[in-house]
Amino acid sequence: MMNENTYDFTGKKVAILTSGGDSQGMNSAIRSCSRMVLSLGARIFPVKWGYQGLVDGGENIKEYFWNDFSKIIHLGGTILGSARCKDFMKEEGRQKACLNMVLHGINHLVIIGGDGSLTGADIFRSEWSNHLSALYDQGKISLSQKNELHNLSIVGMVGSIDNDFCGTDMTIGCDSALHRIIECVDSIITTAESHRRGFVIEIMGRHAGYLALSSGLSVGADFVFIPEFP
């Protein structure tokens, strides 16, 4: 029996998209999140090509079912595709995205992406009620749609190989990136030793030194330089 304080997802519609750079594990996240939504009795609407698909609408937003998420857990990248979206950076573009979601009856959104993608989602959430009012005034949505979908709920899953988000042990894609770095450095070490040369290897991570530090410890590097202690 469902607890009276538990939210009832039956019949609710949830959109899910991937945005920004792709990272290993995104498909696993899509699969697990979407099947959890379905197991709760809700409906899932994956969005192709990230925020661009949300802005363009049409065939980019389609309902998926349980078997549509089979045989993807082992694949790299993202089956939904990802794209940078300049339109979503503008209020006009976000209003188009809002309209496309409302027309599908969706007011729950899951975003798998990095810092920029999640920041954009938070801005979208904060503007949601204003977009609904504007769309209603323009005659593009009905009063019942405006009232029923008055609130936008968002969930952000950090897809970043940099492991640069606090509050989570490991971001999506980080572990795979670390393994690839170690494999590459192991291959380079033999050449360095054969020629008595020192190699400087630059690792991705931007402002976070997790990958550099962890890979440096794993391969026995002599020196490790990270942004936290330049």
Secondary structure elements and pairings:
Layout: E1 13-18, H1 26-39, E2 43-46, H2 50-56, H3 91-103, E3 108-113, H4 115-137, H5 143-148, E4 153-158, H6 174-195, H7 210-219
Helix pairs in contact: 2-3, 3-4, 6-7
Search tags:
alpha/beta; Rossmann fold; 6-phosphofructokinase; cytoplasm; four-stranded parallel sheet; elongated; 230 residues; 41% helix; single chain
What does this structure look like?
It comes from Myxobolus squamalis. The protein is of the alpha/beta class and about 230 residues long. It folds into 2 domains: about 15-160, Rossmann fold (3-Layer(aba) Sandwich); about 160-230, Rossmann fold. It has helices at about 25-40, 50-55, 90-105, 115-135, 145-150, 175-195, 210-220, and strands at about 15-20, 45, 110-115, 155-160. α1 links the parallel β1 (about 15-20) and β2. The longest helix has 23 residues, at about 115-135.
